[in-house]
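Collaborator request log, item 7. Partner lab (contact: R.S.) asked for a structural prediction of Transcriptional regulator, ArsR family to inform their binding assays.
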Amino acid sequence: MTSGAGTAAPGRALAHPDREQLALERVLHALADPVRLSVVGVLAETGEELPCSAFALPVSKSTCTHHFRVLREAGVIRQVYRGTAKLNALRRADLDARFPGLLDVVLTARRRADGT
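Returned to partner:
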């Protein structure tokens, strides 16, 4: 596991699996939940780092924290602290390198299911 990069204060860096540690079953588990899949969809569409507050999720704050943690621990997203904000970014390059085409297939299936 690596710690988060960026400008995180000591003790505020979050652990992330290295690319080689990404496991298909953990990534698929993380993507199987509709709330987590919506987070990944937003991050894929924007291509930007977004704070947790940017996501309009239909769950409590503590449940949001759980969903972001599952995504981070599976290696789907990278979270870094910038000031008081925790920013989230999709680890597309790592996912594409480890599991070529997986993310595109999942996101395309999501769009079809949503009718968009």
